[in-house]
Fold this protein.
Amino acid sequence: MKSVAVALLLAVALPAQAQLYKCVDARGKIQYSDKPIPGCRVEKTIETPPPRAAPAPAAKAGAKASASAKQTAKAANPEAVPREQLAGRCKTLREEQEWLNGADGKAVPFHAERVAQVEQALRECR
């Protein structure tokens, strides 16, 4: 539905492109107009750039699907993460778990859910 609306808006906007004129008057003031301005010292026609083609919706969907598949594969295979990065993540998770179990961490909204998330992520570290 969105792609139809975007295509319709683009189709309406394409004929609206016009030529622009840049005019420098006698006092050096620059003016832009869609029509030539009489009495200009320097006048320059500015051509509008050609419209850029929008990527096909199918290509966008394919890119999103492949990115999603890569994220799923990474989550399913912790070995795909470099060892140093995994070690750093595990250290951070242990620190977070320690903080959550402390006095300050108990005040965190949805405390039990967050503790469960950290514990689940820590299972990859063992």
